[in-house]
UniProtKB/TrEMBL annotation:
InterPro entries noted in UniProt: DNase_NucA_NucB
Protein name, as recorded: Deoxyribonuclease NucA/NucB domain-containing protein
Deoxyribonuclease NucA/NucB domain sequence ranges: 55-145
Keywords of this entry: Signal
Entries under Pfam families matching the protein: DNase_NucA_NucB
Signal peptide feature range: 1-20
UniProt keyword Signal present: yes
Top-level taxon in the UniProt lineage: Eukaryota
Length: 280
């Protein structure tokens, strides 16, 4: 108990704050932070391996923030963020540029998060239905829909959450592994072109990826954020998998709308809550 208390305080030092957590640095605030549970949103890498690849590459290899803040942006703001990510109209993943159809430009940090305003987002061409699964999961979490609707972001802006990964495929996706493989497979870009290994600002070492066991389900997740026992973990569960597949494969992404474009899928999705039990 005492050790975890000290760890929590260490995690809230100004250096950790500079790495993407927002807060003022006065003492009282630090003590409050130590008691606040983090919210963790998991992405099912069995169902969205390409989307996971992008998120893992960005967080584990390029040190993009793994804790994001949903600021409930207007769609014009989201549109601007997509453009700075290289994912605006007629992006490289469009049928015209890519030469094949069925792909969307996926970006991290998400256009729905404040961290996207820093620029330098990582993008990847991913199957449309994976992009749809990711967007609908965020929508469910931001607006606290489905089971456990008293939790998540409750439609309130400035809601911070950590991204994490679940599913048996996770450990087979290079940049998601416990020892991340950070070689660019050619599909990791920024607005200016393919991400190179030798970029000047690039830190040398991949992030430390930790496996955590969950209390209720006994499942494990991978995350590169420092999580503590009791931190809340949310999964999106599809009620009727056949219907979900139909919806996601039929969804036409609207680049001028936010995550609310997935509202019609809400009734087929539940958000379930679990919590961190321990590090493995
Ligand atoms: C959200 O955060 C922004 C920027 O940090 C701040 O200006 C705004 O007042 C906050 N809004 C709410 C509702 O907390
Ligand atoms: C699940 O969805 C499919 C496709 O819409 C539908 O045909 C089927 O009846 C649904 N199953 C249940 C148990 O509701």
């Amino acid at each position: 108990m005492k050790a975890s208390w000290i760890l929590a305080l260490v995690a809230a030092t100004p250096m950790a704050l500079a790495l993407g957590q927002e807060s003022s640095a006065d003492g009282a605030d630090l003590v409050t932070r130590a008691a606040v549970k983090k919210r963790v949103l998991t992405f099912d890498c069995d169902r969205m391996p390409e989307v996971c690849h992008n998120m893992c590459f960005a967080t584990n290899c390029k040190h993009k923030p793994k804790q994001l803040t949903w600021d409930k942006p207007r769609s014009s703001v989201e549109g601007k963020r997509r453009r700075t990510a290289g994912c605006g109209s007629n992006n490289r993943c469009s049928q015209k540029k890519l030469g094949k159809k069925g792909f969307n430009c996926d970006e991290y940090p998400f256009a729905s998060s404040k961290q996207a305003d820093r620029g330098g987002q990582i993008n990847r061409c991913v199957p449309e239905r994976e992009n749809s699964r990711q967007g609908s999961a965020l929508n469910q979490f931001y607006h606290s829909r489905g089971k456990y609707r008293a939790t998540g972001c409750k439609s309130k802006k400035n809601c911070s959450f950590t991204v994490a990964f679940k599913g048996s495929k996770t450990k087979t996706i290079g940049p998601c592994k416990k020892t991340p493989n950070c070689k660019n497979d050619g599909n990791q870009w920024t607005k200016t072109g393919p991400v190179r290994r030798d970029e000047i600002e690039e830190p040398q070492q991949p992030a430390t990826v930790v496996e955590y066991k969950l209390r209720r389900s006994g499942d494990t997740i991978l995350a590169s954020d420092d999580l503590q026992p009791g931190d809340l973990v949310y999964h999106i569960v599809e009620r009727n998998a056949t219907l979900a597949e139909e919806q996601h494969s039929g969804h036409v992404f609207n680049e001028f709308a936010g995550v609310e474009q997935y509202d019609y899928m809400n009734d087929n999705m539940d958000m379930e809550e679990d919590e961190i039990l321990e590090r493995i």
